[in-house]
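Project outcomes to date are best conveyed with an example. Our students and postdoctoral researchers have been running inverse folding experiments weekly, and each run begins with a structure described purely in tokens. The record below, which covers 321 residues, was selected by the lab manager from last quarter's runs and is presented without edits.
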């Protein structure tokens, strides 16, 4: 995997949002993503996890171009895409796609499924109507839906069917990478299993690379070869999924895994328990951002921000890992 060039490379990516008062004056910056660097390799599934508000969805949307980066670089297929003009960015969108957490919101309620599936082909290709119909029929079969669904509106579909239509809409363009934002959120367990099975099948069939954003650690463990753990806009641990789950090194990662219940006990020793709420991202703590909730915190944690350093085949941002 390391021999090939990365499909996506993020270098010191920053995304801040201005906080304004009632008069429209900026009073602070919300640090949503703050100096994140990582690589995604062709054909892999990289999991991005953390508590709500940690910046994982903002990171995905900034890579996608939904948000503009405040600083840093985003390289896709070897090309810097973070500051491309709108027209150039639209060309990149054919190879880099985003699946929203709410699949129904991504489908126009006034359009039948057939219209939603034809639209990206009209925008990004020069295919004739007959050619588009062949392509639409092929991707609909690939996501496991019958042709009869083409004549339905989004509100006539279940949550699982809406996700399948959303995937079909993206696959019409044959992208290289898909960013999946909470793809199993709000689904019954049985439907979750079918969606995950479908994602694996589509990855093999279409040679896809996934960035898998989720708070569900069990799903991430099943789906992802590597995992990146975020806390308050920063990466705190990055490594192979089996290694991170088997022996988490950052106190925050250990706390997350300790909070996952299982019948007959816990997944990780209860030496680390996650207490309290994350600090306000408008006023992040000095030094290590996790120190206000960390049982290992010492004076150095407030004085120096720990770098993301190599440790046992992974990268960890902790003075005491």
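After processing, the design step wrote out the following sequence:
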């Amino acid at each position: 995997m390391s021999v090939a060039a990365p499909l996506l490379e993020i270098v010191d990516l920053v995304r801040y949002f201005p906080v304004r008062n009632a008069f429209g004056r900026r009073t602070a910056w919300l640090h949503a993503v703050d100096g994140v660097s990582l690589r995604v390799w062709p054909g892999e599934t990289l999991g991005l996890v953390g508590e709500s508000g940690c910046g994982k969805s903002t990171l995905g949307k900034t890579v996608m171009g939904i948000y503009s980066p405040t600083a840093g670089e985003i390289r896709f297929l070897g090309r810097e895409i973070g500051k491309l003009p709108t027209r150039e960015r639209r060309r990149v969108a054919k190879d880099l796609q985003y699946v929203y957490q709410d699949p129904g919101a991504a489908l126009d309620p006034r359009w039948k499924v057939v219209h939603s599936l034809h639209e990206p082909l009209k925008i990004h290709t020069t295919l004739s109507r007959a050619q588009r119909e062949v392509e639409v029929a092929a991707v609909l079969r690939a996501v496991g839906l019958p042709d009869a669904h083409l004549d339905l509106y989004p509100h006539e579909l279940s949550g699982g069917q809406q996700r399948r239509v959303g995937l079909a809409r993206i696959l019409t363009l044959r992208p290289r990478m898909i960013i999946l934002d909470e793809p199993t959120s709000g689904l019954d367990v049985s439907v979750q299993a079918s969606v995950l099975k479908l994602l694996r099948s589509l990855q093999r069939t279409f040679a896809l690379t996934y960035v898998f954003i989720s708070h569900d650690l069990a799903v991430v463990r099943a789906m992802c070869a590597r995992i990146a753990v975020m806390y308050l806009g920063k990466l705190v641990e990055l490594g192979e999924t089996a290694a991170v789950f088997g022996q988490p090194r950052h106190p925050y990662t250990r706390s997350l895994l300790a909070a996952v219940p299982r019948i007959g006990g816990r997944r990780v020793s209860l030496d680390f328990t996650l207490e309290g709420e994350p600090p306000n991202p408008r006023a992040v703590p000095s030094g290590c951002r996790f120190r206000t909730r960390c049982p290992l915190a010492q004076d150095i944690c407030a004085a120096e921000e720990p770098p993301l350093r190599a440790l046992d085949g992974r990268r960890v941002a902790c003075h005491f890992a």
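The first helix runs from residue 56 to 64. The radius of gyration is 21 Å. The training component of this project remains on track.
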